[in-house]
Amino acid sequence: MTCQELVELVTDYLDGVMPAEERARFEAHLADCPYCTIYLEQIRQTIRLTGHLSEEALPGEITALLLDRFRDWTR
Amino acid sequence: MSGSLQPIQPADSASGSSAEQQLVAALRRGDETAFRTVVERHHRSLVRLARTYVSDPAVAEEIAQETWLALVRGIGQFQARSSLKTWLFHVLVYQARRRMKREGRTIPFCDLEGPTVAPGCFLPPDAEWAGHWADALPDWEGTPEERLLADETLHQVEDLIAHLPERQRQVIILRDVEGLSAPETCGILEIPDRTQRLLLHRARSRVRAGLDAYVRGEDGKPA
Q1: Using the beta-carbon criterion (under 8 Å), do B45 and A62 form an inter-chain contact?
Q2: Which one of A2, A15, A50, A62 makes the best mutation probe of the B interface by having the most chain B beta carbons within 10 Å?
Q3: Nearest of B198, B192, B210, B173 to residue B51 by alpha carbon
Q4: Does residue A26 contact residue A58 with C-beta atoms inside 8 Å?
Q5: A4 touches chain B (CB under 8 A)
């Protein structure tokens, strides 16, 4: 497996949907290749950073507007 | 308000957690704090996802609000066959699709084939180590975590996602921003598992490449 092939398989790998034999070749390559190890770690960091978007605060005026609506709807 | 309760594909996620049960019970009582909690948790992603169906940000905001109205009206009949989050996104997509049809808009086809990392990053076919990295990759671990988590970096991620093709955006919002499972995502978007994974793969690869350029300082900002 080349590095160029490995980078196209990272999502299958992380989702655990790889056949056992391909997984073994993927992991054997990783064990031997510091750059692909870094690439996989960058993908993991990308996923973590993307997940942080859900924690961003909602602007106060939008919350206030939706709460106003809520009071109307439940009146 | 019609269409507030769509038949929902069976979802696999644990929906019966006691925190969720309490939240649903509070919403049924019309508890404002509970409403505020779910709004603060999901409104942004509802709008993000709506934007992939309609081009006007104001319309996307409206669709998200219709989804909240559907929640208020429909929570009494909500059955914990799926999580509240999955249910919200099902409703949003239903409303957004209806709006998109009315506008006569369709979501462009998205290419699922071809390399996701620029071929120039790898040694050419005639090289001894063909297909291996041409240059060392910088280790982001060397980048202080505070910098990666800084508001500016998160804005960068938001911007990178906003520029992805719609179908890729839909999948990365549900899987990586909201943390939904692959089966839940497939159920909401009504796409096969393989398509979902190919779209996610392309989306993550592009966001990674954009972040890598950002970390290297190739976007004109200091690294």
Answers
A1: no
A2: A50
A3: B173
A4: no
A5: yes
CA dihedral of residues B26, B28, B31, B37 (deg, nearest 10): 60
ipTM of the complex: 0.94
Residue A66's domain comprises 3-74
Which CA distances in Å does B2 have to B5, B24, B71, B101, B104? 8, 21, 12, 16, 21
* Strand, coil or helix: B5: coil
Nearest to A53 among B117, B177, B212 (CB): B177
CB contact under 8 A, A11 and B200: yes
All structural domains of chain B, each given as residue ranges with its CATH number in brackets, are 18-102 (1.10.1740.10), 119-215 (1.10.10.10)
Is the CB of residue B114 less than 8 Å away from at least one CB of chain A?
A: no
Give A-chain residues touching B30 at CB under 8 angstroms.
74
Selected residue of B39, B43, B185 to mutate for chain A interface (largest A Cβ count, 10 A) = B39
Tens-digit pLDDT profile for residues B103-128: 888 888 888 889 999 999 999 999 99
The tally of domains found in chain A comes to 1
Q: Are B87 and B7 in contact (CB under 8 A)?
A: no
Name residue, tokens 């989050």: B85
Interchain contact, B161 vs A71, CB within 8 Å? no
CATH number at A11 reads 1.10.10
Token look-up 């709460």 returns A67
Evaluate the CA torsion angle B201, A52, A41, A28 in order and state its sign: negative
- Say whether residue B157 is in contact with chain A using an 8 A CB cutoff: yes
Query: What is the spatial distance between Cα B179 and Cα A54, in angstroms, rounded to a whole number?
Result: 9
Q: Residues B63-85: pLDDT tens digits?
A: 999 999 999 998 888 877 788 99
Q: Is the pTM above the cut of 0.90?
A: no
Beta strands in chain B (DSSP E): none
**Amino acid type, A32:** D
